[in-house]
Specification:
Layout (H helix, E strand, L loop, with lengths): L8 E4 L4 E5 L14 E4 L18 E3 L1 H7 L10 E4 L7 E3 L6 E2 L3 E6 L5 H9 L1 H8 L12 H4 L3 E4 L2 H39 L6 E4 L4 E6 L11 E8 L7 E3 L4 E3 L1 H6 L10 E4 L9 E4 L4 E2 L3 E6 L5 H10 L1 H6 L11 H6 L1 E4 L2 H41 L3
Parallel strand pairs: 3-7, 12-17, 13-16
Antiparallel strand pairs: 1-9, 2-8, 3-4, 5-6, 5-8, 10-19, 11-18, 12-14, 15-16, 15-18
């Protein structure tokens, strides 16, 4: 049961909203090189609190923007909420940039509400549950904006909001800095990989030839409760964020492991997402034994290569690999495509030199990822404490 501080007043969400950007139901014409970015749900599912503009794939012309989007662009401090499909994804806009159409709304708060505080309030687990129970969808999850605007919000005095938001953001700022460090470390690792690709001992091969095992995963039947809530890590593609994987959101039991094609893969296996943009091609590195769903493919390096090489190779070739995806409803990769994808080997000395160069970089990425998990857990615990208990 959630309790809230007695000095906080309660009101429906709509009472603290000054401006609602709701362009749902509109499918604007697109222009490949248009000046305005069109954000989709995929851009607000990243671990960051901010929209991920690297995932933008749609743009619109100035004319379309002027005639279709009269409520203007997103402003700094706007809160984005997904309302279809992956409902209750929340993001905080830190700049005046882009616009939204299908499946997302944005709210701009009144002066009585600190927007960053509202972001953390809406992101809290207990609020997310309130939003998800509003689902009226049949084929896919969907919530009505009018229902969303009616959910109760507990509003502390503005100085208290600002204090709480500042404390929680200090964790996110540290997390963002560590993620940027990891991006730079990966970029440096890929430079070493590209130098390796120029080595005179290079010989072409396929991924299958430098792996002991390449296989897709599986999903234990969900109707069997005994298959879940166990101790075995079981990952979905949503958890693949191009980094190390420490613990999965869903755990399965031994019976779940034996129920389908689910198999355990060893530490330092590389996982690659196979289904649908923008997920297809994303990677994960198992830190310990784990299993995964059928939308994921696992690769175990053999003695002719290293997990760092596999990671850098797949990361560098992501665009090319994704171009090989096929399907009518959505573009998917397959285990066969991955097995036959070109790769290369080098002699033992060159491989050893590569390992010495990139090994410390991946170790630092792993350390940073552990710190990110610790900071995330602390932030989530503090969010629950601040939002749910008197203080």
């Amino acid at each position: 049961m959630v309790t809230t501080p007695t000095k906080w007043r309660q009101c429906p969400l709509k009472e603290i909203v000054a401006h609602l950007i709701d362009n749902r139901g509109k499918t604007p014409p697109l222009e490949k090189n248009g000046p305005h970015e069109l954000l989709e749900v995929s851009a607000i599912t990243s671990p960051s609190i901010y929209p991920d503009y690297s995932r933008v794939r749609k743009r619109i012309s100035q004319e379309t923007y002027d005639t279709w989007f009269k409520r203007g662009p997103l402003h700094k401090g706007d809160i984005l909420i997904s309302t279809v499909g992956s409902v209750a994804n929340i993001a905080y806009s830190r700049e005046t940039r882009a616009t939204i159409a299908q499946n997302i709304i944005a709210i701009r708060t009144k002066p009585i509400m600190n927007p960053l505080f509202l972001y953390y309030y809406l992101s809290a687990a207990f609020t997310a549950r309130k939003i998800r129970v509003l689902d009226i969808g049949c084929v896919q999850a969907s919530i009505k904006v009018s229902d969303l605007m009616s959910i109760p919000i507990h509003v502390p005095p503005l100085p208290e909001q600002e204090k709480i938001a500042h404390q929680l953001f200090s964790f996110d700022k540290a997390i963002i800095d560590l993620r940027e460090q990891n991006k730079a470390l990966v970029a440096l690792s890929i430079i070493y990989y590209r130098l390796l690709s120029l080595h005179p001992s290079k010989e072409t091969c396929t991924l299958q030839e430098i792996c002991t095992h390449i296989a897709g995963g599986g999903t234990p039947p969900k109707k069997e409760e005994t298959h879940y809530n166990g101790t075995i890590d079981w990952y979905t593609t949503k958890e693949l964020q191009d980094g190390f994987l420490y613990t999965s959101k869903t755990k399965i039991t031994e019976s779940g492991l034996q129920s389908t094609t689910v198999a355990l893969f060893p530490p330092k296996s590389i996982l690659i997402a196979m289904y649908a943009f923008p997920t297809a091609g994303r990677l994960g590195i198992l830190n310990s034994e784990g299993a995964f769903n059928q939308a994921t493919c696992g690769l175990v390096p053999n003695s002719n290569t290293t997990y760092e090489y596999l990671y850098c190779h797949l990361k560098s070739h992501r665009a090319n690999i994704n171009q090989m995806a096929s399907g009518s409803a959505q573009q998917n990769l397959s285990k066969h495509i991955i097995k036959k994808y070109p790769a290369f080997t080098v002699d033992a000395e060159a491989l050893s030199d590569f390992k010495r160069s990139v090994g410390p970089l991946f170790q630092k990425i792993e350390i940073n990822t552990r710190k990110i998990k610790t900071l995330t857990d602390l932030r989530n615990a503090l969010t629950k404490k601040f939002m749910c208990h008197p203080h």
